[in-house]
Design a protein that fits this description.
Number of helices: 2
Order of helices and strands: HHEEEEEEEEEEEEEEEEEEEEEEEEEE
CATH superfamily: Hexapeptide repeat proteins
CATH class: Mainly Beta
Distance between the termini: 59 Å
Helix content: 10-25%
Length: 216
């Protein structure tokens, strides 16, 4: 009876939702049958849409992760005779929308429950630029650990640069350029990004801050 009711409900859906539902089932099956053997770690009920490129062997997905179409999730193993030991850990319930670029040469972590909107860059790599006789693309890499905390929200087009740490439940505005350490429960916007609000645990309310992140 339950199967019949589910089938009836499916048949009543608009065509676009029928298509999306069937695609969802296909991607679940593809993950269980194929991707779980390719990724370093692959939890249950993950959805991975067609990527541009993924360094599967160095990426760990916990459960209920969504990776949208045309994602580029890659690691750097060596550069200019320097060897790296990269890994990307994506926690349970993370949603990564289309065309995101995540790249790492060390351990890059994205905490559980985080939502990353479209066209976001997250990296732990910078290019050196000091030597003006050598193109920057050929200079050594500067690798600084990047960590995204649990339950963060990263707006479309944001750039999370090398060496950034976001605490729990941070909200990053669209197109923000972020570098540095940011505490739990803060709103970060701008170029360069600054804290404009924080959650005040004493008053249990979101409160505006000055440019240093202090309550005002």
């Amino acid at each position: 009876m339950k199967v019949f009711l589910k089938l009836k409900k499916l048949l009543l859906l608009p065509v676009s939702l029928k298509k999306r539902y069937m695609e969802h089932l296909w991607l679940l099956a593809k993950g269980a049958l194929i991707y779980r053997f390719m990724f370093s770690e692959y939890g249950s009920r993950n959805i991975v849409h067609k990527p541009l490129f993924i360094s599967c062997e160095a990426v760990k997905l916990e459960s209920n992760v969504l990776i949208g179409p045309h994602a580029r999730i890659e690691v750097i193993y060596n550069w200019r005779d320097t060897q790296y030991n990269p890994s990307i850990l994506i926690g349970s319930g993370v949603h990564i929308e289309q065309r995101c670029h995540i790249t790492a040469a060390a351990l890059l972590r994205i905490g559980q429950g985080t939502t990353i909107l479209f066209d976001v860059l997250i990296t732990d790599i910078d290019h050196e630029y000091q030597n003006i006789e050598i193109p920057m693309s050929q200079q050594p890499l500067i690798v600084k650990e990047t960590t995204i905390g649990e339950n963060c929200f990263i707006g479309s087009g944001a750039k999370i640069n090398a060496g950034t740490t976001l605490g729990k439940h941070c909200i990053v505005g669209a197109n923000a350029v972020v570098r540095g350490d940011f505490p739990d429960y803060c709103v970060i916007v701008g170029i360069p990004a600054k804290i404009v609000k924080r959650y005040n645990l004493a008053t249990q309310a979101w409160q505006k801050t000055n440019s240093l992140g202090d309550f005002v």
